[in-house]
Amino acid sequence: YETSRLSSRPLTGGDGRPDVTGTHHNFVVPVEGFVNNGWRVAAVEPDGSERWASDDEQMAKGQTIIVSAPLATATDGSRVFAAQYRPRDYSSDLDPTIVRALDRATGRELWMIEVKTSASSLAAGAGRLFVAIDEVRGADRALKIVAFDAATGEVAWERPVGVTNSDRRARASLAIVEDHLVVQSNFGLVASVRLSDGGLRWA
After folding, report:
1. With the CA atoms of 50, 41, 125 and 120 taken in that order, what torsion angle do they form, in degrees rounded to the nearest 10?
2. Which tens digits make up the pLDDT trace of 65-77?
3. Cα–Cα distance between 13 and 28 in angstroms, integer?
4. Residues near 104 by beta carbon (within 8 Å), at least 6 away in sequence
5. Strand blocks (E) in 65-107
6. Residue 10's pLDDT band (boundaries 50, 70, 90)?
7. In 3D, which of 67, 14, 15 has the Cα closest to residue 36?
8. How many helices (H) and strands (E) does the chain have?
9. CA distances from 179 to 118, 146, 197 (A)
């Protein structure tokens, strides 16, 4: 669900169950038993208890920021990936974002990368993490897909897929279908790229 502010309150209430009430949580996104509130990722059991929680060190210090986009979460079976906000420049109209990889069993952080603008969607598969990233190109915004090695966070390939022709943020939904990634943007573009190298199959 969506609110306008993000706080440093824990995800769990006094009874140990996930706390998704009140007005200070941003988008809490469940993915296979994991929730992401912008600075903390938690593994939640079927009974609502919290198995582990992993905080972003900078965002866990009580900072409050204004955010404007969903916080994506994905898993590949052994790792959990989360796009989270880390404020760098309050004068900017962008959404500074980090992407963290966590051990699925323990919540230990495996790697973290920063993107210059914002990551609107994640998809994990074939040993990689695919991230939809908004870019500024002059007066326009553009959508780029970046594939990271799921184990190390190293960039495998990058693929520009479209321009908004406006100052509207470029966002997308990602889905893995067999050996390709389907991209559906918020500016009318639907495209398919190969998982192996980002080559465009159709658009």
Report:
1. 140
2. 445 555 788 999 9
3. 15
4. 43, 75, 77, 78, 79, 80
5. 73-75, 79-85, 97-103
6. very low
7. 67
8. 0, 15
9. 26, 16, 11
Percentage of the chain modeled with pLDDT above 90: 44
Render pLDDT for 160-176 as a digit per residue (tens, 0 to 9). 999 888 878 888 999 99
pTM of the predicted structure, to 2 decimals? 0.79
Determine how β-strand 180-185 pairs with β-strand 190-194.
antiparallel
Instruction: For residue 129, give the amino acid letter.
Output: L
> 154-172 burial, b if ≥16 CB within 10 A, otherwise e?
eebbebebbbbeeeebbbb
Hunting for tokens 């790697």 — which residue is that?
A: 111
Residues 6+ apart with CB under 8 A from 152: 111
C-alpha span between 52 and 34 (Å, rounded): 10
Q: How confident is residue 182, by pLDDT bands cut at 50, 70 and 90?
A: very high
Which residue, 92, 100, 139, 138, is CA-closest to 117?
92
Report helix, strand or coil for 104: coil
Distance CA 199, CA 72 (A): 24
Name the one residue in this structure whose structure tokens are 């938690």. 42
Amino acid of residue 88: R
Confidence of residue 91 (pLDDT cuts 50, 70, 90): very low
